[in-house]
Design a protein that fits this description.
The protein is an alpha+beta fold and 2037 residues long. The strands form nine sheets. Strands 3, 4, 5, 6, 7, 8, 9, 10, 11, 12, 13 and 14 form a twelve-stranded mixed β-sheet that branches. Strands 31-32-37-36-35-34 form a six-stranded antiparallel barrel. It has a four-stranded antiparallel β-sheet with strand order 20-15-26-25, with no helix packed on it. A hairpin with a 2-residue loop joins strand 27 and strand 28.
Length: 2037
C-alpha cells in the first residue's frame, strides 16, 4: 500500500480497506410469544431426551452476520430519512407537455361562425386578417445576447451553468430493476416459530332460554364434516347470571380467572367450506329423560304471568335442590351448529348464505354478507412457515340464533353428530326430525388481531402483551389440523387428550342405569396419588384431579362426548396411568343411600416399553377393587391373580376410549424414538442392556443398532421428522464429529451420520408439501442453517443436579484415546476415496504452469495421500499457532469433516450432496465462521487459517460441482433448472468464502470454474447465462470494489491481483499516460488481470452482445441488468458518495464504453419504432420482438430522404460492416444506455476529453449516434402515460412482491441498502413490509412492467412523474455535456467538418423531444455557442440540419412557458444575424424559417399562435435594438420576414375555426398550398401537411395523392435543373397515377428560377427526396388497398434506382411489387373503395358555400345516416341545432320555399357513372372505382308532385354530376361543375326495372359454383305466388292495351321483349333449381313450377300480341309474309337479349 499516492490510500481507507473479518457471530435471544417460555415443571430431574428438547426450544439463535453491512447501516440511518423523502429533495421539472394539459384559454375553440373560403387563391386575401406586430408587447430579452465575448469564455460560462444544481446520483432516479434477475438476493429465511393457522376470535355474549330456571354450560369446538374430524379442542364457557351460579356454590371450592373466559381464539390451518362451529349446552343432572327435562323450555315463557309464573318458580326451586345434591354431574341438553363457510370465503364467488344456516335466526351481521376470512386457496401445498399468514381482514360479524336442537340421549357420539351436520348442510329437514328449543344465543366472530391483549395459550401461559388489570382473559384453543403441518417444534408442549367413547353394560344388573365415569391421572396406585394435571372446565379451578362424564338418563350403553385434557408430566414413569372409575348416580334422593354407586374400574398405563401410549383402546372393566401393582400391566394382559379379578362379561372389552397426545417431546414415531434413545444411551450413564420397544440392546450390539437407526431415520414419517428436525440434525452433526468409545472400541459414525443428513435433505426437498424459496432452497432447512445450527461441541455436558460425579466421568470418557485410535471405518470408505482421486473430473492438483495462478495463490504444494481418513487435528500438525490454545488435541473440526464427507461420498449420496449443495455449503460457511471466531485467529493471516488438506477438499468440491453443472446442462432441458440452482449455490459459497479464506485462493477457484465450464459446454447462451448469474452474485459482495482493486487506475496498477501491490509508481510521465488513455476504454488482458471480477463480467457481457444464438436475448438482458445493478449499488452506497471515489469507480468501468459502442448496430432504436404505444405493439416480452425495433434501413433513409449523400443520416448506418446480431429489446437497450450515461457522468471529464481528442472520426460518429439514440430513449413520457402501460407484463400478486421486498430489505451489502433507499415511504414501521399498500417504485413509463394504475394515488403518480422528470433532465444534460466535450475536442483537432452535423443532429433530436425548461435553457445556450463558433460552416454545409433546427426553434418560440420562449427567440435571432453577416446566406435561412412555420402550422393543432406572435415581436425588438446591424439592410429584411410569417399565422387562425370540419380544413390547406404555387418549397410543405392530416384521418389514398403531387413538383424542378433520362419528365410522367397531377406543371420558368438562392433548397428537392416521397406514397397506396397504383408509382422509382445501381433497394422494391400483385389476386373484388355522396348547401348562413354542391368521398360502407349525422352535428354546433335542417329527398331544391334563417343541407347517395364506351375500357373492379369524375343519382317523382305513385304515373329523374377533379384527389370533397338530367317516363321506368330483374336471374342461373340459396331468393322474387303481382302487374298496366300514342310503340315493344326474355330466364332458373334441390325441398320445387306455369299462362297473350305497325315491311319482299315476320322477330329478339344482358 505504501506505493499508492496519498489520495488513493485515503480512498482505500475510506472504503473500509479489506476488513480482515467481516463475518460476525451473533447470539440473538429467541422471540417468545408468552411472558415466560414454556418449560417443564420445576423440581423434576428430566431424562436426557426431554432435557435436549427443552434445550433446543429455549436456546438462543446463532446467526452469522456480515459486519460490513453495518457499513451501510450506520449510514443508512442518515439516509433513511432522506431516501424516504427522496422525492422531496428533487426539483420539480417543468415540461411543456404538462403545462398544455392544464388547458390554455387561448386555444380552446368554441363554436364559431363558419367563414367561407374566398375562391381566388392569392396571398393577399389570406393575409388580410394580419394585424400589426408592432402593436404587441415583446417578451423580456436576454441582455447579454449581443455582448462581445470570446467563444471560449461563452463556452466556459455555459459549462459553469450546466454544472450547477445537478443531481449527484443518476441511478437513484432510474426505476429499480425487475427482480426476476436479481439472483444475488438470498432471502433471509423466516425465523422458525410456532405454527398458528388462520385465527378467528369467537366471543360468546348471551346464552339463555325463554325461562331461566337453572345454570347452563356451553362447550364449543370446531368440526370438519368433510374429513369427519373434530379439528379443535373444547372451549368451556359459563354465561350464567350470578344468581343461578350460586346454586352450585357448594361444588366449586375456588374459581380461577383462566376458567372465566368467554372468548376464544380458534385456529384453522386448512380453511374449507365444511367447517362448523358446534355449541353444546349441558345442564346439571336431574331426574328424567332429556326430553322430559326440556319440556318446560318448549312450552313456558318467562314473560307470561299467573300460573306460568308459579310453575317457573316451582321449577326453579326443583332445580336448586338438584344442583345442591348432584351439582358435580352434568347431563346433555341442547346443541346448535354454525357454518363457517362465509367466514372462510375461499376462491368461490361470494354466495349469499344466511348466517345462521336455516335456523330461523336473525343474522345481524355488521356486514350482511359476512365475507369473512377471504383465505387464499392453499393449493395442494401444505402449510409451511411461509404460507401461514393467509387471512385477510374481514368484518366482524355478530350472530343471533333463536333456535337450539334438543340432544337425543341415544345419539350423542361424534359419529351421530357428523350425520346430523351433513343433513343440516344438505337441507333444513333436520328441524323437522329433531325437536327444537326456543332460546337466544348471541356471539361475535371476527379475525383475531395480531396482538390480542390478555390472552392465554392452550397451556394457560399468558401471551404478550398481558395487561394485569383485565377481568376475563381470551383463551387460545389448540387446533387438531386435518392434515400434517410441517413446521418444526419450537416450544415445549406436552398435552394428552382422553376421549371416553362408549360403554356397554347391557348385561349388567339393573342397578347400572345413570352411568358416569370418573377419570383421573395417577402417579401411583394409591387413591391419593391422583395428580392435579387435568384442565378444569368453566368457572372452577384451573387444574383438577378428576373429571366426571355427562350422564344419559337410564341408558345402560351410553355414548360419551367428553374431552379430558391433561398436562403430561415431563418425566413419566411406568407407574403413571389413567384410572377410570364407573358409577351409577341415583337421581332421586333416597333415605340414607349415597348418590354414587360403584360399578367397576378400568385403567390404561401411560407408557408401554418407555413409549407413550396413544390410539384407540377397548378396555375390559373389573368389578372389584383392583389388585396391587395392577398399573404396570395393561388391563387386557393382567396376569392371573388370587383371588381372581371379576370382570364384566368375562374380561371382554366393553369400554371404548381414545387417547391422543400433542407433544413436542414424545416423537410418536418408532424410528425417531429408537435413534434418540440410542444417542442418549451414549451420552449419559446407562446400565446395559437397555430396553428398546420389545428388544434388548447390549453394549456390544449398540454400535450396530445405532448405525441401523441412523440409516433408518429417513424411513420415519415426514411429519415427525420435520417436527423434530432441529434436534435430529443437531444429534447427527454431533455424531459426525464426536469420537465415541463403545465397549472400549472407538466407533466412527461420521459417514453414516453424513449419509443420513443427505437422505433427510433429499426427502425434504422432494416433498411436494414443503415450500422452497426462489433459489429452490427448502425453507425449513434454510431456517435451520441460518438460525439453529451451531458447531457441535464435544465437551458439551449437562451436569445433572445431584449427580456431580457423573460429569467428571463422562468428561474423561471422551478423551481416553489418542489420535491413533481413529481407525478405518471400513474399506468401503477407503475405496471411495481412491476412486475419487482417480476420477478425471476432479482436478485436485492444479496446473501450476499458469503464471497467473502462481501470482494469485502462493500456497505450498498440495499433498494428497489417497489413503487419507477422517482425521483429528493435532496441535502440532500444520497449525503451530494453535499450540498456545489450551484445547484438547483430539477434536475433529466440523468443517473439515463435512468437506471430507462431501468429497468421499459416492453414488446416490454424492448425487444428492451436489444436487442440494446449497445446504452443505451454508453449513460449511457457518461452521467455518464459528471456527474462526472460536480460535481467535484474527491476527493470523488468512492463508494459514485453514489446513491445506481442507483447501484441497474445497478445490475438489468446487471442481466437482462445476462438472456436475456442466453435465446437467449437456443433458435434457428439464435438468437445466437444477443446474441453475447448483450454479447459484456455488456462487454464494464462493461469495461467502471471500469473507473467510485467502482471496487469492478463492479467485483461483473462480477462474477454474470459468475455464471448466467453457471446456464442457457447447451452447453459448447457456454458458454465458450460467457464468453471468455466478458472477453477478460474486460482484454483489460488499467489498467488491476493493476485491477489484478499483483504486489502481491504469497508469498505476500492478500486474496481478496479488495482495502485495506491485511496483509501478503512479507519477509516471504524462506522455506515457496519453498512450494509455485509449487503452483504458478497451477490455484488455491487462485490465482483466488487474480487475479480476469486473474483467470476467465484461467478458461475459461482450460475448453475450456478440453472440447470435437461440434465446440469446434473455442472456443479453441478464448481462446488462447485472452491470446496471452493480452501478446502482455504487450510486446508493454512502461509501461511494465522494466525487473522487466516484471518478475512480467510473474509471473501473471505462471498458464498458468500448463494449457499448461495439454493440451500436444492435441497439433498439427508440427514434423509429413508436415505442410510446407500449412494448413492441402489445406488450410482448423482449424475445418475441427481437426484430421489432430493428431499424428498417429503407424507412430510415426515405424519411431522412438522402440515400445517396455521403454521410447517411439513418441513425445506425454509420457502421457499414453489418453484424447480423440479434437486436436488443427496448428494456435491455435502455439499461445499457443508462450505464453509458452513468460512466460519462462520473468519469473524469479531462480524461474523457483527452480520449475523444484521440478518437478517429468514425468512432466519434458512433458516439454521436449513440447519443442520438439516448435522447429518444430517455425522453420524458409524462404522467398520463401510465394509462397506456401494457398490462400483459407479469402481474405478480402483491403479497409475493411484498415478501420479496422484505427479503431484499434484509439482503446483504450495498444491494440491501439500495433496496431500502429505493423504497416508497409507506409509514415507518417494519410491519409495513407486509402492508398491502406497499408498492415498488416501478417507473410509470412504457418499458416498466404493468403497473396497477387503478390503485395508485395521485400523490404517488405525481411523485413518479417528478422522479422521471428529473431522470429525463439529468440524462439529457449528460448527453449535452458529452456533445460539448466532442465539440471542444474536435475543434482542437481541426476535424470539425464531419462532426458538427452529427452534433447538430443530436441537438435537434433533443429539441424535438419533450424536454424540461432546465434542459432547454442549457441546450439553447449550447446552440448559440455553436452558431457563434461555426456559423459559416453551419449555413454552408449542413443545410438540412439547419432547416430542422429552424423548425425546432420555431416550435419552442410558440411555447407557453416564458423561459423557453425567451431562450428560443434569442437563438432564432442569433441564427438570422449570423447567417446574414457570415455569407449573406440570409435568403436560405428566411426560406427555411418560412417553411418551418408553414409545416408547424399545418401539423400541430395544439400550437398557440398568440405566443408565437409574441415571439415574432420579441425578435423584431432584438433587430431594432441591435446597434451593430442598424447600418445594414438586415433590420428591414427581418421585418419583412416577420410580416410574412405573421400572415402565415393568420391562415392558422382560419384553420383553427375548421378544426372540427375536416373537409373545410382540407379545403383551406388546399387553398394555402395553391397560394404558394410560386414557392415550391412552401407548396411542398403544405402538401406534406395535408398528407399528414389525411393519414391521421385514415384517408390513406388521399395522403398518398398529396405525396404524388409533391413528387411531381420535385420532378418539375429536377427536370428544369438537369436533364437525366432516367428521371421523370416533370409532372407529365405521373399521369398514370392520377390525371390531377398535371396541376403541378403550372409553375413556369419565368416564375421560378431554380438557381436563385434559397429556392428549392429543401431536402426533398433531390433525387433521393423524390424516391423518398414516392416510396412513402406507395406504402400509403398499399395501406389504402390501391395496389394497382403501387405498380405505377414504382414504374417511376425503378429507373432511378437502376441508375444508382442500388440493388438492395431494388430487391426490396420488387418484393413490395410482388406483395401488391399478390394482394390484387387474393383480394381483387373483396376490396372496399369509397362511398360517394352529393352534398348541397343552401342558406345565407353558409356564406360562400350557399348553393354550392360537392361530391364527398367517405370511407367504404358509410351509410347515409352516418354522414348526415356528422354534418348535421358539426353545423349544428356552428349555427345552433335548431338552425340546421337536412333535406331528406333528392329532388331539386326550390330556394324560395326555404326559411332564410336556417341552413339546409341536402345529402344524396351517388354512384360512379360511365358511358358505354367507357365501360369497355374499365374492365376490372379497381378501374371502375378509380379516377372517377362522373356520378349519378336517381329521383323518383310523379307529375302531381308526390315522389311515388301508381305504376302508370311513376316517373324517374336521372341526374349526372361532373366534378372539377377526379377522385381520388388530394382532398375528400370536390366541387360539382356540371349537372345533366334525364327524365324516364313510366313505361321506361318499367323497362329499366324488368331489365334489372332479368339480369339478376341470368346472373343467379349462370353463377359458378351454383348458389342454391341465392337462386331460390331471386326466383321467389320473380315467380313466387306473393310477388306474382310484381311482374304480372307491370305487364297488365303497360302491355294489356296497345298504346294510343304511336310514340310509345317502340317502348311497348321493348317492354314486351323484356318480358319474353324474363319468362324464358325464369324457366331456366326453375330447371336449374330442380337440379340443385335436396329431397326435402321437392314440394317447394313443385310449388315454384306451378307458380311459374301460372305466370307464363297469364303473360302469354300479352307477350304474343305485337303492334302490327312496327312490323310493316319497308320494302316489298317476294316471300310469304310469315317468314319475314319470323326473321325480323328473331332480329329483334337478338337485339333485346343483347340489351338486356
Amino acid at each position: 500500500m505504501t506505493r499508492l499516492n496519498n489520495l488513493d490510500a485515503e480512498l482505500v481507507q475510506e472504503l473500509g480497506d479489506f476488513p480482515e473479518d467481516d463475518l460476525d457471530i451473533v447470539f440473538t435471544p429467541k422471540e417468545c410469544r408468552t411472558l415466560q417460555p414454556s418449560v417443564p415443571e420445576d423440581g423434576v430431574e428430566l431424562d436426557s431426551h426431554v432435557r435436549d428438547c427443552v434445550q433446543t426450544y429455549i436456546r438462543e439463535w446463532l446467526i452469522v452476520n456480515r459486519k460490513n453491512q453495518g457499513h451501510s447501516d450506520t449510514c443508512s440511518l442518515k439516509n433513511k430519512g432522506s431516501r424516504k423523502d427522496f422525492h422531496k429533495t428533487l426539483q420539480k421539472q417543468t415540461f411543456e407537455s404538462e403545462t398544455l394539459d392544464s388547458g390554455d384559454a387561448n386555444f380552446q375553440v368554441g363554436p364559431q361562425h363558419v367563414h367561407a373560403l374566398p375562391e381566388e387563391a392569392s396571398r393577399t386575401t389570406l393575409a388580410s386578417s394580419d394585424f400589426d406586430l408592432h402593436s404587441l408587447q415583446p417578451d423580456p430579452r436576454l441582455e447579454n445576447l449581443l455582448w462581445h465575448i470570446s467563444a471560449k469564455e461563452f463556452e466556459r460560462q455555459n459549462e459553469e451553468a450546466r454544472r450547477t444544481n445537478r443531481h449527484a446520483e443518476l441511478l437513484a432516479l432510474y426505476p429499480p430493476l425487475d427482480e426476476e434477475d436479481a439472483v444475488e438476493i438470498r432471502p433471509v429465511p423466516d425465523c422458525p416459530k410456532e405454527h398458528l393457522g388462520n385465527r378467528i376470535l369467537v366471543k360468546l355474549q348471551t346464552l339463555k332460554f325463554d325461562i331461566e330456571i337453572e345454570p347452563l354450560f356451553a362447550c364449543i369446538a370446531l368440526y370438519d364434516i368433510k374429513e369427519r374430524k373434530k379439528i379443535s379442542e373444547n372451549f368451556h364457557c359459563d354465561l350464567n347470571p350470578d344468581s343461578l351460579r350460586g346454586f352450585l356454590r357448594s361444588h366449586t371450592p375456588s374459581i380461577d380467572v383462566s376458567t372465566q373466559a368467554r372468548s376464544a381464539v380458534f385456529s384453522v390451518t386448512y380453511p374449507l367450506s365444511d367447517i362448523y362451529l358446534v355449541i353444546k349446552v349441558e345442564k346439571v343432572l336431574q331426574q328424567g329423560e332429556i326430553g322430559d327435562c326440556a319440556e318446560p323450555y318448549m312450552v313456558l315463557k318467562e314473560s307470561e304471568a299467573g300460573k306460568t309464573k308459579e310453575k317457573i318458580e316451582k321449577l326453579k326451586a326443583q332445580a336448586e335442590s338438584f344442583c345442591q345434591r348432584l351439582g358435580k354431574y352434568r347431563m346433555p341438553f341442547a346443541w346448535v351448529p354454525i357454518s363457517l363457510t362465509n367466514f372462510f370465503n375461499l376462491s368461490t364467488p361470494e354466495r349469499e348464505i344466511p348466517e345462521a344456516e336455516g335456523l330461523n335466526g336473525k343474522g345481524s351481521s355488521s356486514d350482511k354478507r359476512a365475507t369473512l376470512l377471504q383465505v387464499r386457496r392453499l393449493s395442494e401445498r401444505s402449510l409451511s412457515s411461509e404460507d401461514s399468514y393467509t387471512v385477510s381482514n374481514f368484518k366482524t360479524s355478530s350472530l343471533t340464533l333463536s333456535t337450539f336442537f334438543k340432544q337425543e340421549g341415544d345419539r350423542l357420539s361424534d359419529e351421530d353428530l357428523f350425520k346430523f351436520l351433513a343433513d343440516f348442510k344438505r337441507s333444513s329437514s333436520l328441524q323437522r326430525r329433531i325437536k327444537t328449543l326456543p332460546g337466544t344465543l348471541k356471539l361475535e366472530i371476527s379475525p383475531a388481531p395480531e396482538n390480542l391483549g390478555y390472552c392465554l395459550t392452550p397451556e394457560l401461559l399468558p401471551v404478550k402483551p398481558f395487561p394485569e388489570n383485565r377481568n376475563r382473559p381470551h383463551k387460545e384453543i389448540l387446533e387438531f389440523p386435518i392434515r400434517e403441518v410441517y413446521v418444526p417444534h419450537t416450544i415445549y408442549r406436552n398435552l394428552l387428550y382422553v376421549y371416553p367413547q362408549r360403554l356397554n353394560f347391557a348385561n349388567r344388573p339393573p342397578s347400572a342405569r345413570n352411568i358416569t365415569i370418573k377419570i383421573q391421572f395417577m402417579c401411583s396406585e394409591d387413591p391419593s396419588c391422583a395428580m392435579p394435571v387435568i384442565f378444569g372446565k368453566s368457572s372452577g379451578p384451573e387444574f383438577v384431579q378428576e373429571i366426571y362424564t355427562a350422564v344419559t338418563y337410564h341408558n345402560k350403553s351410553p355414548d360419551f362426548y367428553e374431552e379430558v385434557k391433561i398436562k403430561l408430566p415431563a418425566k413419566l414413569t411406568e407407574k403413571h396411568h389413567l384410572l377410570f372409575t364407573f358409577y351409577h348416580i341415583s337421581c332421586q334422593p333416597k333415605q340414607g343411600a349415597s348418590v354414587e354407586t360403584l360399578l367397576g374400574f378400568s385403567w390404561l398405563p401411560i407408557l408401554l416399553n418407555d413409549r407413550l401410549q396413544t390410539g384407540h383402546y377397548c378396555l375390559p372393566v373389573a368389578l372389584d377393587k383392583l389388585p396391587f401393582h395392577y398399573s404396570i400391566h395393561s388391563p387386557e394382559k393382567v396376569p392371573s391373580q388370587t383371588p381372581p379379578i371379576k370382570w364384566v362379561e368375562g374380561h371382554k372389552g366393553v369400554f371404548n376410549v381414545e387417547v391422543q397426545a400433542v407433544s413436542s417431546v414424545h416423537t410418536q414415531d418408532n424410528h425417531l424414538e429408537k435413534f434418540f434413545t440410542l444417542c442418549h444411551s451414549l451420552e449419559s450413564q446407562v446400565t446395559f442392556p437397555i430396553r428398546l420397544m420389545d428388544q434388548k440392546i447390549t453394549e456390544a450390539t449398540l454400535e450396530h443398532e445405532l448405525k441401523l437407526s441412523i440409516i433408518c431415520l429417513n424411513s420415519s414419517r415426514l411429519e415427525p421428522l420435520v417436527l423434530f428436525l432441529h434436534l435430529v440434525l443437531d444429534k447427527l452433526f454431533q455424531l459426525a464429529v464426536q469420537p465415541m468409545v463403545i465397549a472400549g472400541q472407538t466407533a466412527n459414525f461420521s459417514q453414516f451420520a453424513f449419509e443420513s443428513v443427505v437422505a433427510i435433505v433429499n426427502s425434504l426437498h422432494n416433498s411436494k408439501d414443503l415450500s422452497k424459496d426462489q433459489h429452490g432452497r427448502n425453507c425449513i432447512l434454510a431456517s435451520y442453517v441460518y438460525y439453529v445450527f451451531c458447531l457441535p461441541d464435544p465437551q458439551r455436558e449437562v451436569v445433572k443436579p445431584g449427580a456431580g460425579s457423573s460429569a467428571i466421568l463422562t468428561e474423561s470418557r471422551y478423551y481416553t484415546f489418542g489420535r491413533t485410535s481413529a481407525v478405518s471405518v471400513g474399506s468401503k470408505l477407503l475405496q471411495s476415496r481412491v476412486i475419487s482421486c482417480s476420477n478425471p473430473d476432479i482436478t485436485v492438483t492444479q496446473a501450476a504452469n499458469d503464471e497467473e495462478v502462481k501470482n494469485i495463490v502462493s500456497s505450498k504444494p498440495m499433498d494428497h495421500s489417497s489413503s487419507r481418513m477422517s482425521f483429528y487435528v493435532e496441535g502440532t500438525n500444520d497449525m503451530p499457532s494453535i499450540c498456545a490454545n489450551p484445547r484438547p488435541s483430539n477434536k475433529k473440526h466440523f468443517h473439515e469433516e463435512l468437506a471430507l464427507q462431501m468429497v468421499v461420498s459416492t453414488g446416490m449420496v454424492r448425487e444428492s450432496v451436489f444436487k442440494y449443495a446449497w445446504f452443505f455449503f451454508e453449513l460449511l460457511i457457518k461452521s467455518m465462521a464459528q471456527y474462526v471466531h472460536n480460535i481467535e485467529k484474527q491476527d493470523n493471516p488468512r492463508r494459514s487459517r485453514f489446513s491445506d488438506r481442507f483447501k484441497d477438499d474445497i478445490t475438489t468440491i468446487v471442481s466437482v460441482v462445476t462438472s456436475e453443472i456442466a453435465a446437467l446442462l449437456v443433458k435434457l432441458q428439464k435438468e437445466s433448472e437444477q443446474a441453475e440452482k447448483m450454479n447459484i449455490s456455488l456462487a454464494f459459497f464462493l461469495y461467502d468464502l471471500l469473507s473467510l479464506m485467502d482471496r487469492g485462493f478463492v479467485f483461483n477457484l473462480i477462474k477454474h470454474y470459468c475455464n471448466q465450464l467453457s471446456n464442457k459446454l457447447n451452447s453459448l447462451s447457456t454458458l454465458i447465462s450460467m457464468r453471468l448469474e455466478f458472477l453477478r452474485i460474486l460482484c454483489s459482495h460488499e467489498h467488491y470494489l476493493n476485491l477489484n482493486l478499483f483504486f489502481m487506475t491504469s497508469a498505476s496498477a500492478p500486474a496481478s491481483p496479488s495482495p502485495s501491490l506491485s511496483s509501478q509508481n503512479s507519477s509516471s510521465c504524462s506522455s506515457f499516460q496519453d498512450q494509455k488513455i485509449a487503452g483504458m476504454f478497451d477490455l484488455s488482458a491487462e485490465y482483466r488481470q488487474q480487475h479480476f471480477l469486473t474483467g470476467l463480467l465484461f467478458t461475459e457481457l461482450a460475448a453475450a452482445l456478440d453472440a447470435d444464438s437461440k434465446g440469446i436475448s434473455k442472456v443479453q438482458r441478464k448481462a446488462v441488468t447485472a452491470i446496471l445493478s452493480l452501478l446502482s449499488s455504487h450510486d446508493l452506497d454512502p461509501r461511494c458518495s465522494k466525487k473522487e471515489v466516484k471518478i475512480k469507480i467510473a474509471a473501473l468501468y471505462l471498458p464498458l464504453v468500448g463494449i457499448i459502442l461495439d454493440s451500436l448496430p444492435q441497439l433498439h432504436d427508440f427514434t423509429i419504432s413508436d415505442v410510446r404505444s407500449g412494448k413492441g405493439r402489445g406488450g410482448s416480452p423482449e424475445e418475441e420482438q427481437e426484430s421489432a425495433g430493428a431499424i428498417n434501413q429503407n424507412m430510415a433513409l426515405a424519411i431522412a430522404g438522402n440515400q445517396f449523400s455521403l454521410r447517411s443520416s439513418g441513425v445506425v448506418l454509420v457502421c457499414p460492416s453489418y453484424r447480423q446480431s440479434a437486436t436488443l429489446g427496448p428494456d435491455t437497450t435502455r439499461n445499457l444506455l443508462i450505464c453509458f450515461l452513468w460512466i460519462m457522468k462520473n468519469a473524469d471529464q479531462n480524461l474523457i476529453q483527452k480520449w475523444i481528442a484521440d478518437l478517429p472520426s468514425m468512432q466519434l460518429n458512433m458516439i454521436l449516434d449513440l447519443l442520438f439514440i439516448c435522447v429518444s430513449c430517455f425522453e420524458y413520457k409524462g404522467k398520463q402515460s401510465s394509462d397506456k402501460v401494457s398490462t400483459q407484463a407479469l402481474q405478480k400478486s402483491r403479497d409475493v412482491k411484498a415478501r420479496l421486498e422484505e427479503a431484499l430489505l434484509r439482503g446483504e451489502g450495498a444491494r440491501g441498502e439500495m433496496m431500502k433507499r429505493c423504497r416508497i415511504p409507506t409509514g415507518n414501521d417494519r410491519s409495513a413490509g407486509l402492508n398491502e399498500n406497499l408498492r415498488w417504485r416501478k417507473e410509470q413509463t412504457h418499458w416498466r412492467q404493468a403497473n396497477e394504475r387503478q390503485d395508485k394515488t395521485k400523490a404517488e403518480l405525481d411523485q413518479e412523474a417528478l422522479i422521471s422528470g428529473n431522470l429525463a433532465t439529468e440524462a439529457n444534460l449528460i448527453i449535452l455535456d458529452m456533445q460539448e466535450n466532442i465539440i471542444q475536442a474536435s475543434f482542437a483537432a481541426e476535424c470539425r467538418d464531419n462532426l458538427l452535423g452529427g452534433v447538430l443532429k443530436v441537438l435537434v433530436n433533443s429539441l424535438g423531444c419533450d424536454q424540461s425548461t432546465t434542459y432547454l435553457t442549457h441546450c439553447f445556450a449550447t446552440l448559440r455557442a455553436l452558431i457563434a463558433k461555426f456559423g459559416d460552416f453551419l449555413f454552408e454545409e449542413e443545410v438540412e440540419q439547419c432547416a430542422d433546427l429552424c423548425q425546432r426553434v420555431l416550435h419552442h418560440c410558440s411555447s407557453s412557458i416564458d423561459i423557453t420562449r425567451t431562450q428560443a427567440c434569442a437563438t432564432l435571432y442569433l441564427l438570422m444575424r449570423y447567417s446574414f453577416s457570415s455569407t449573406s446566406n440570409f435568403a436560405r435561412v428566411k426560406m427555411q424559417v418560412t417553411m418551418s412555420l408553414a409545416s408547424l402550422v399545418g401539423k400541430s393543432p395544439e400550437f398557440n399562435e398568440e405566443f408565437l406572435r409574441r415571439s415574432l415581436r420579441t425578435i423584431l425588438a432584438y433587430a431594432e435594438e441591435d446597434v451593430d446591424m442598424q447600418t445594414t439592410s438586415f433590420p428591414i429584411q427581418v421585418e419583412e420576414l416577420l410580416c410574412n410569417l405573421n400572415s402565415i399565422l393568420s391562415d392558422t387562425v382560419k384553420m383553427r375555426e375548421f378544426q372540427e370540419d375536416p373537409e373545410m380544413l382540407m379545403d383551406l390547406m388546399y387553398r394555402i398550398a395553391k397560394g404558394y404555387q410560386t414557392s415550391p418549397d412552401l407548396r411542398l410543405t403544405w402538401l406534406q401537411n395535408m398528407a399528414e392530416k389525411h393519414t391521421k384521418r385514415k384517408c390513406y389514398t388521399e395522403a398518398a395523392m398529396c405525396l404524388v403531387h409533391a413528387a411531381a413538383l420535385v420532378a418539375e424542378y429536377l427536370s428544369m435543373l438537369e436533364d437525366r433520362n432516367y428521371l421523370p419528365v416533370g409532372s407529365v410522367s405521373f399521369q398514370n397515377i392520377s390525371s390531377n397531377v398535371l396541376e403541378e406543371s403550372a409553375v413556369s420558368d419565368d416564375v421560378l428560377s431554380p438557381d436563385e438562392d434559397g429556392i428549392c433548397s429543401g431536402r426533398y428537392f433531390s433525387e433521393s427526396g423524390l424516391v423518398g416521397l414516392l416510396e412513402q406514397a406507395a406504402e400509403l397506396f398499399s395501406t389504402g388497398g390501391l395496389y394497382e397504383t403501387v405498380n405505377e408509382v414504382y414504374k417511376i422509382v425503378i429507373p432511378i434506382l437502376e441508375a444508382h445501381r442500388d440493388f438492395r433497394k431494388l430487391t426490396l422494391t420488387h418484393s413490395k411489387l410482388q406483395k401488391a400483385f399478390d394482394s390484387i389476386i387474393n383480394k381483387g373484388q373483396k376490396r372496399m373503395f369509397g362511398t360517394y355522396f352529393r352534398v348541397g348547401f343552401y342558406g345565407s348562413k353558409f356564406g360562400d358555400l350557399d348553393e354550392q354542391e360537392f361530391v364527398y368521398k367517405e370511407p367504404a360502407i358509410t351509410k347515409l345516416p352516418e354522414i348526415s349525422h356528422r354534418l348535421e352535428g358539426f353545423y349544428g354546433q356552428c349555427f345552433g341545432e335548431d338552425a340546421v335542417e337536412v333535406i331528406k329527398d333528392s329532388a331539386p331544391v326550390d330556394k324560395r320555399k326555404l326559411d332564410p334563417n336556417k341552413a339546409y343541407i341536402q345529402i344524396t347517395f351517388v354512384e360512379p357513372y360511365f358511358d358505354e364506351y367507357e365501360m369497355k375500357e374499365r374492365v376490372t373492379y379497381f378501374e371502375k372505382n378509380f379516377s372517377l369524375c362522373r356520378f349519378m343519382y336517381t329521383t323518383p317523382f310523379t307529375m302531381d308532385g308526390r315522389p311515388r305513385g301508381e305504376l302508370s304515373e311513376q316517373y324517374k329523374r336521372n341526374t349526372i354530376l361532373t366534378t372539377m377533379h377526379a377522385f381520388p384527389y388530394i382532398k375528400t370533397r370536390i366541387n360539382v361543375i356540371q349537372k345533366e338530367e334525364f327524365i324516364l317516363t313510366p313505361i321506361e321506368v318499367a323497362i329499366e326495372d324488368m331489365r334489372k330483374k332479368t339480369q339478376e336471374l341470368t346472373a343467379a342461373t349462370s353463377q359458378e359454383p351454383p348458389d342454391a340459396k341465392m337462386l331460390q331468393m331471386v326466383l321467389q322474387g320473380s315467380v313466387g305466388a306473393t310477388v306474382n303481382q310484381g311482374p304480372l302487374e307491370v305487364a297488365q298496366v303497360f302491355l294489356a292495351e296497345i298504346p294510343a300514342d304511336p310514340k310509345l310503340y317502340r317502348h311497348h315493344n321493348k317492354l314486351r321483349l323484356c318480358f319474353k326474355e324474363f319468362i324464358m330466364r325464369c324457366g331456366e332458373a326453375v330447371e336449374k333449381n330442380k337440379r340443385l334441390i335436396t329431397a326435402d325441398q321437392r314440394e317447394y320445387q313443385q310449388e315454384l313450377r306451378k307458380n311459374y306455369g301460372k305466370l307464363k299462362e297469364n303473360l302469354r297473350p300479352m307477350i304474343e300480341r305485337k303492334i302490327p305497325e312496327l312490323y310493316k315491311p319497308v320494302v316489298k319482299v317476294h316471300s310469304t309474309r310469315e317468314s319475314f315476320r319470323n326473321h325480323s322477330f328473331r332480329k329483334y329478339d337478338a337485339q333485346a337479349s343483347s340489351q338486356s344482358t
